[in-house]
Records
---
Amino acid sequence: MHAEGSSPPPSDSLPIGGLGAGTLLQNAAATQTPAQSRSNKRKRPGGAAASPAPSDVNSNAGNGTNSTDLLATSRADLSSRPILTISRGPIFVPVSEGSEWYKTEMIGVNRIGYRYIPAGINPPGHAVPCRTIESNPTSFRVSWEDRSPLIKVTKDGLSLAGFKGFRSARCNAPMREGKWYMEVKILHGGGDKTSDDSKREGPHVRLGWGRREAPLNAPVGLDGYSYGYRDKTGEKVTLSRPRPYGRPFGTGDVIGMYISLPPKRQPNKKDPLDPAHLKRERIPIDLKGQEVFEILEYPQSKEMAALMDYSGKTTSSASVPSSNKKAANGKPTDRNGPAPPSNKPSTPVLRPLPTLPGSRIAFFVNGEPQGIAFEDLYDYLPLRQTETQQKNSRKRTREGVKEHRENPFDDGTLGYYPFISLFNEASVRLNPGPSFDFPPPDDIDDVLDKMGSPKSDGIAASTSLPSSSSLLNLEIPKEQDVKPQIDPTSQEAIPPTPPAPEPPKRTWRPACERYPEFMQEEWDFDALEEEEAKVELAKYAAAEKAEEEKRKQREKKRQQAEARRKAKKEAALAQQVADAASLEEERARTLERERFASLPAPPPGTLYGPGGHFPVVQPQPSPSPLRHFTAFEPEGSVDYENSPAPTYTSFSEQLGGQSGYTSENHEPEPMDQDPDDLDVDQDIEAIMGSPSRPRTPA
């Protein structure tokens, strides 16, 4: 069951866990601090507040009790963490025994340059790992995170107490458009000292409205980002310049705070650099066991800082009368020559500061209106980026490391917040409605317009003409039926009855209604981010798929090129082996020729062979027997000649001489002849025929 004015949780939320349910979580992931290159430059301590984000060199990650780590965004790393719809913190620690004032722990208190919002892990199936959640109590109150650590609170978040100097706090929902009203009761203020108060100055209170850029360790009205109302003098103050306004107030008084803002300006869709576009820049981290979003706070612009210049120095380039003094060398300066180049930097061009036309702030003291305090407030949207800022924003961040980036757009938390500043031991009690101690009139603007606009003091624009809001609220007379009505019985005219007066319509809303409206805006923004993340994931998956296809094609081409290189290498190696074999064969032939060249030259008509050289046997045709005499000549006669035709004996002798196996070289073989040899001889004789004998004529 929710507290009064609380908003319902998102539709996909799980049952709400009680405060402090379960043990604190351990750090999910170590902070991924990028490796820094070694430098010989002298190290100087940074002036900015430490941040657990890896982009901050003063990161306090892992420093014991105040450990803050970058939250792992992998679904596997977040699976062990509980899914919450209400933040675990804060833990209330009483200032003293039995005191009604508490300090808060286990939360991320905003500091210079950074602010924190409770975060919860999304259920499985979401593209975004974390979303915005609430913290107890879920109603309009002072923000646990958006206040000075020296501001003490009660458990309901509606009572605040100060300590040592001016400290401030903002409420947990901004006013972005419309008319809003709330009350603040002064419990202790106006400079009233207590009996045990030994401080020189008593407690004081300043109330008003401030933007996100207004500092928390300073009073409201310090700069142009906030507008305040002083208790001691009743003066209004902004840019640290008090001006007469209303009556003073102190302990026991009830101050009504009213603000009227025009409708929100819609962004120009054709202009991507329009600051009215909604965009978030936040990083989920683990802070003391609780998931929170760390956000880079909107910085103060140099244009707003220029409004604080009290010197009155002119920024024009008007000429100054020249001096009659001589130069250092004693010679008068040449006035007709060209002017020497000036080394002074040129005056930067300041961007115009837009305002919210028709906006106004007013205060009530115990139900009595004090009139319009401020009109045409400065627009809460950030100024449009300069070209230099745009170039710097285009620089790519380091891959794999999440870094904070300045957000030039509206993140949904911009607006005017109720701003309470307490000096020393001052204390107040907030009343966001819907019931008030001194209810204001239904049409506050009408009452303020009748009182008149504030005098022009050069701080806020003012005019004696009625504002646009009052012109819009003018009553238009309605047409009435003025025809006489006749009584049918008496035939007399019946006087017309006056119309019943309409009940007055309230034109403003209590501040308590703003909190559920603001949380719904945050959850709608979460849903929009979820849809955008799904689209981005689809694009990323398609790009990854295309990149994978390209990688496969590159791998295939690489393998083909590798195969071609391998085949070419193998062919070259085979060619080298063949060339080496050919060279070796040529070398062997050369050595063989050199070896045979050293032997004596063989007689002509010989053949080379493995066993040496042999005489060439020229084949001779068998001579015709007709060229011989037919007379028989006995063997042994003078005219006896052997037949020139080759015979077994002559052929054997010739082969024997060629082979070297002759009786001259070897010992005579035994007479016993192998029968196989005889068979061979008979076969040869059968083929060749018996030796022919010349016949003598009878």
Note: The mean pLDDT is 76.
---
Amino acid sequence: MTTIRRGLPMVLLTLAPLAMSAPNIANTAHAAESATTASSSDNSHLAKKITPKSWRNISVDALPENIRNRTKVAVSNYPLYLLSQAVTKGAPDATLLLDPGDVGHHGSLSPGDMKNVRDSRYVVWFGNELESNLVKSLGGSANSISLFELNVFNRQPLRDVKGEPIKDTLDPHIWLDPDNAKAITRALGAIFSRANPQYKALYADNVRQFAQQMDEAVRQSQLKASTEQPYWAYHDAFHYIEPTLRLNMVGALTTDHHLPPKASQFHWLRQNRPKPKMCMVLQTDSNQGVLSKLKPVTSTIQQEDMSGSDDFLSGWRSLAQDINQCIGRG
């Protein structure tokens, strides 16, 4: 399994989940906003090390005058919204732009959504690799922040239907990696603190609590995961949870869950099954028709965007538990 890792920039190193203070999160947010100008003498050593393009238009001077003092923060999709809720618990929520289920090139912004974009101080989205449908709306916005342009996440490549990595690609479902989820909340904590400094201590405490709870969820998920186990996927969308659960996706039916599987891929899976009874991770009820062609097989239906969950941690726990049960870990 190929893992592409990028170094944690100084802008987030000050946000270690178990040692975060309100001043740290405020200073980090300020450093992020002034990365292009290094206007803060206290944080200039941080600002000079910040190279990701996503902060290029987020200095105070670069923001349009009509939104410089706004407090609203908008986020693009549902998994990002769930993570933002973990950060803002006890304070005003972020505004969600896309409906649950509209993730991965799906969904579009309504006129009301576009007004929210214009009225927000910051608009946080993942970026083109996941949300090409939003590039026209957000790509050129002075107040938009693309998380994919931050060098803070573990990154995995896309894979073909045989489980082989595809060179120079990015699997965009980064939030399923527990370390990435924690890094996203740290980044959001910095962003929210800049927009609403009166809540910076609350945000810092929420980010710290989320990290502790995420670590406990990981610990629980690994109690029965002593050895690596193979599984199949209808569509390869769960790469980032595999290292934590000690899983190995050894084949998928299609590269896009909107495309029907080819007969040749059914044949390949049957000929290359690593154990007699396999687990197939499906994404919708309509996918279940494929199971009769791959018996014996167990299955579980999962949404990588956690659109059936009300909070990130419970959604991640449920996903991990269901996949563990599917592969026979009880």
Note: Residues 1-58 have pLDDT under 50 and may be disordered.
